[in-house]
Amino acid sequence: MHISAPAILIAAQPHGETAVIARLLTEDHGVVAGYVAGGRGRQLRPVVIPGNLVEVELRAKSDSQLPFARLELVESRGPFLTEPLPAAAIGWATALTAAALPERNPYPNLYSALAGMLDAVCKAPSARGWVTALVRYEALLLRELGYGGAIPPTEAELEALLDFFAAQGPSIRRYLLADRQGDVMAARERLRERLGRMIR
Fold it and tell me: Which of 166, 112, 120, 174 is closest to 142 using CA atoms?
């Protein structure tokens, strides 16, 4: 197996003393996982951050073997992780994607939507500029995985969007995170609380 593609890093789990198992969302191959040697070292630590856009090269001798991954940073989300709201949004979107999507099934619409949402989080002057993209991404994820649901309008008011966000929670918990909801839903709750402060 050999894959070379742009990817969004959606999860990184320590492995052994210095390595990382990275999970990445690609446009053509869906979620793929790879062993990143030295992923916790000084050189690669800034690369292996969920939300980062990378160029990934995966190589394995067989489909049953965990591939070795070589990552090259394209765009870092690291600078935005010091801000509570952007950090919460990036953490939630990547954790949800990693938990909900099966491996090796392409979802090009989700790849484009997640990339656009992360760009909005990092480039908009405030959360008002990216809440719509976040709520629409959740709704698209539910629809792409066959659970239906409405997509909120692009021009909805902030309070209506936050109501939509709250109403979408039970479907995400029930359908996407049935067996994995603990820490992942806790990330969503932190984000919901921080967004709620915007309208108080």
Answer: 174
